[in-house]
Amino acid sequence: MSTFTRSIRGGITTRRPVQTVALVVGLAFLAVGVLGFIPGITTHQGQMSFAGHSSRAQLLGIFEVSVLHNLVHLLFGVAGVALARTPGGASSYLVGGGLIYLVLWLYGLVIDKASSVNFVPLDNADDWLHFVLGAFMVVAGVLLGRRTRNGLLG
User: Fold this and answer.
1) 4, part of any domain
2) Which of 68, 86, 88, 132 measures 20 to 30 Å from 54, CA to CA?
3) Is residue 78 exposed (0-12), middle (13-18) or buried (19+ Cβ within 10 Å)?
């Protein structure tokens, strides 16, 4: 992927690292959202529910998913791709999205996974993936966003 993009007026502008990271994260969310609907990649596809803990579909046979869960991934992906267009938007996406995922991690730790409050649905693998993803996004957004605001990268 080039570190340069064409502006609307045809000039070349530099893509900041924070934008590249936000774009990659957004594209990853889009891919996961789509893969969550593909039989074979998602096991027990026929047992996928719209929402709730009763969905037995698992992405890669590990992460419990539902239609709602996949749609959330797709929305996060669209937001990441859209907000990666500017350094400020990219930083906001990474920090804000990362904080949402850290809250989702905490939520997953405290709820009863077999109850109706597990509406996404979440399982232990999802919980720890949410922690790693959330922490990465916040750290990347803060560090790379700060470097961009301070002019250290151009």
Assistant:
1) no
2) 132
3) middle
Q: Pull the structure tokens for residue 97.
A: 């999205």
Q: What pLDDT digit, counting tens, does each position of 91-107 carry?
A: 999 999 999 999 999 99
Prediction pTM value: 0.83
* Tokens at 23, concatenated: 């774009």
Residue given tokens 């232990």 in the structure block:
124
Q: What are phi and psi of 53, to 5 degrees?
A: -75, -10
Kindly state whether residue 3 falls inside one of the protein's structural domains: no
How many angstroms separate the Cα of 48 from the Cα of each of 17, 57, 121?
37, 5, 10
Terminal Cα distance for the chain, rounded:
19
d(CA 153, CA 74): 30
Count up the domains in the chain and report the number: 1
